[in-house]
From TrEMBL, chain A:
It is an enzyme of class 6 (ligase). This is Glycine--tRNA ligase alpha subunit. InterPro entries: aa-tRNA-synth_II/BPL/LPL (IPR045864), Gly-tRNA-synth_heterodimer (IPR006194), Gly-tRNA_ligase_asu (IPR002310). It catalyses: tRNA(Gly) + glycine + ATP = glycyl-tRNA(Gly) + AMP + diphosphate. It holds the Pfam family tRNA-synt_2e. One of its GO terms (cellular component) is cytosol. Its EC number is 6.1.1.14.
UniProtKB/TrEMBL annotation, chain B:
This is Glycine--tRNA ligase beta subunit. It is an enzyme of class 6 (ligase). One of its GO terms (cellular component) is cytosol. Keywords: Aminoacyl-tRNA synthetase, ATP-binding, Cytoplasm, Ligase, Nucleotide-binding, Protein biosynthesis. Belongs to the class-II aminoacyl-tRNA synthetase family. It comes from Paracoccus chinensis. Residues 651-749 form the DALR anticodon binding domain. It is found in: Cytoplasm.
Amino acid sequence: MTSPEQADRPRCFQDVILRLQSYWAATGCAILQPYDMEVGAGTFHPATTLRSLGTRPWAAAYVQPSRRPTDGRYGENPNRLQHYYQYQVIIKPSPPNLQELYLGSLKAIGLDPLVHDVRFVEDDWESPTLGAWGLGWEVWCDGMEVSQFTYFQQVGGHDCRPVSGELTYGLERLAMYVLGVEHVMDMPFNAPDAPIPLTYGDVFRQTEREYSRWNFEVADTEMLFQHFKDAEAECARILDAAAEDSAGRHIPMAHPAYDQAIKASHIFNLLDARGVISVTERQAYIGRVRALAKRCADLFVTTEAATGANAGDAA
Amino acid sequence: MDLLIELFSEEIPARMQPRAREDLKRLITDGLVDAGLTYASAGAFSTPRRLALAVEGLTAESKPVREERKGPRTDAPEKAIEGFLRSTGLTLDQLERRAEKKGEVFFAVIEKPGRKAADIVAEVLEATIRDFPWPKSMRWGSGSLRWVRPLHSIIAILSDEGGAQVVPLTVDGIAAGDTTRGHRFMAPDAFRVTGFDDYAAKLRRAKVMLDPAEREAAIRQEAANLAFARGWEIVSDEGLMTELAGLVEWPVPLMGVIEQRFLDLPPEVLQTSMKEHQKFLSARNPKTGRIEGYVTVANIETPDHGATILAGNQRVLAARLSDAAFFWENDLREARAGMQAWAEGLKAVTFHAKLGSQADRVERIAALAREIAPAVGADPDQAEQAAKVAKLDLRSAMVGEFPELQGTMGRYYAQAAGLPDAVADAARDHYSPLGPSDEVPSAPVSVAVALADKYNILGHFFAAKEKPTGSKDPFALRRAALGMIRLIVDNSVRLSLEYLVSKDIDGASFVYAMHNGAALMTGQPDGSTVITDFNSAMVLGNQFPDTFGRARSQMLEMFETGHDDFVKLVDDKPAGRFPTKREVLELLAADLLAFLHDRLKVHLRDQGIRHDVIDAVLAMLGSDDLTLVVRRATALNGMLGTGDGPNLLQGLKRAANILAQAEEKDGVEYSFGADPKFAETDEERALFAALDAAEPKIAAAMRAEDFPAAMSAIAALRAPIDAFFEAVQVNTDNQVVRRNRLNLLSRIREAGRLIADFGRIEG
């Protein structure tokens, strides 16, 4: 016999993701798709970074593949991956019942807060590369951190008014806990009784090995340094471009510029993994990415302010 | 009346709750009192989701207040009168005119009627909420209010026998009411309360223990019970205990057992990992001395009595301890292999931009420890070896994960490497003492390394112009100085610091030249001058010995001997000859000693030794031997505090004053030649005899460093000196007799000078 909680448990990794998608869709969030660039966390998606700026209401949820080259362990560590998935929810302004909504999502994936010990433990969030910070908690379930819960206070150096509420779930870790799996590579990816059952390892073991080697040993650092400079220069060039296009239309380009800032940030992470950035240089590189992110944020805010009146009319 | 306030929010960080309770109580009660109310008692409480305050015996309204303020004269300039009106908020016709001695003067009479408690509470509470001193606060949603986390509701009720009344108040859209909620999961529904007793009782029914002290006591008790049932004991950790009480509304301690495979981890590792990552209390088995279990404190009672929660925590713990075990095993392997890779690794760790790598520093400390060893009774080879391994654990994986385990791991790894216990203990203990309550190492090798470490920190940061200023002490140099003092004094170490500095074992003079503008001026054939700074000459000379090696050694030689072309740059311009190495070392010794003496004064003052007594001792030769200084000061302090001390001091001072005046007037120094044959009175002869007896005793006692004996020897002079001054007029007309008496007084002065500079003592 199984208890009600067990009966309602997700059976595989994708089940956890699908349930989160349906849950947040039901609360009214726009379900977006991952951003098509390499990022270190779901926060870098413009749907979070840029949309948390300005005054327009916003509600979105999405899965974001995230890359942290230094966390690569050749697929051998039970918990660490250089490529993993985050589930990201961003709502502006943060609703008064955001905590309840969040707890509802835990129930949706089979974590009943009447059986588990769910706690909000102080953890302030800061992203030096984005010039962003917020206050909130890491959410603990039975002593394990399952999510980050943040009220954004500043992004790209701008005060957030209104404030966005951001939720980030580390999907592999959360799913492993829900599914009772000890090693991430053993986690069922699709239903265990599917005609072709696949584990997380079937999908990602080889890629983890290959990327770990490339990240740590092979990536051409000379080229990466050059790419960093190129992305930085292109970002500045886009931001410096006249707001009017050749036909005289007013089209400032915050988003293309921001793509270059994201690119610079990821290249920096790769260089960091290759161990070619010293402690002192590290701060300088982070500062350079932050400077780019700030300018993109500035442009996004002025663009939104200029088009805001129209948006208001339409509404 | 009684007042109940509750500020209900999302989870308040545990570490902020104690301060927040105090602040809430202070701000509200101060505000109420300032507004003219009085109260009998007040108590503040907190849970993760609420801050509460109960005020009892509050007066129902404030007394009317009549305030009179005197203003300018009625014929004062208009500006002055306008200013007075502004400050009082009155108009000209509301002012009273009164005749005073100097003319007619305006008076403002302000009558404030009594106000109802509810109005005052509303005002004070709103101000408190808006200006609450959270260490960090935030906005949320579209609002502008700041609180530690989103604020959801406010209870503000005043109650008396007649019933309860909600204080009318709205802050940023949140209207005060009489409703709250219980435990987030176990009793989430809203309920109404009528006063504090009702509130606390209903909360308890709703699975919320309001009082943090009660929650802490409950955790303590239950954790102890759970441990006791297994024959274990909880490892005391007061900070963690308080934090745990701030993390739950309804504490449910659960006991877990650490898996067998992790029990070989050092207890410090288990405890640190469980505390840092999971906020577990550690449980020790007194029979084995090992940490074998833990207590986690849940915030909920579940149908399965915490089984699911415990299982989850156990899994997380296993993952964490697997990491720790992995670090430990890898580290042990490296330790057994001799830790050479760690030594290499220290070369890559910058200690400070101006002072090079940790590996450089280890070399310096090792040389120093060797030098200091004989003074502390340590074997020089062992001291040097200990210094070389003491920092290696900084490169271990375990210390990388848990920096607070530095030293602790160093000892384990040194043991694993097969090094002697004295060396391993020094690896652990050489950081001590860190705080004033921290224990001072006493094992000779540990003392040698600890002294070398701290001395090197002080000397090199001083040489690199990184002295602490005011409240800024980023490298904790004051702590290092106090550590040195305690190591020296508590272990009675005899060390001449001036001599130690003069030997320049760790190259402080070189660091000084690098960072104080040393440069070489070289005349060119065309008559111009090229200035090469010392810093770049050293760096280039090292990197490219063929090209710059000669310039480097030339400059080093000039630093040694002094040269007019070897100059000090101030704002990039030559400003005179750079001091020679020897002069630099003298400067550094003086600097360092002054700093240590300052710290020593603070240290001794805390032990009840007067600062002027310390000054009197520091003025003596040998003040760079801190053990000697402390012994002298202690003995002197003791003598001055009892018996003959105060009178003796008067006598010594009187002698010194009379001498100083006579010497000033006569332009000579009276120092010797007093002869008893010119003595005219018995008192003079008695003083001669007393000095004859005391002088050799004092000198011998001081030589033997028997300071108490020296004190009693000089104290024996009190009576003869007193009698002398009572009976004898020093400045007589007979010049021979006068000179003889002055020379006699100089013997008193000399006797005193053997012991201390009494002139610096007050009183």
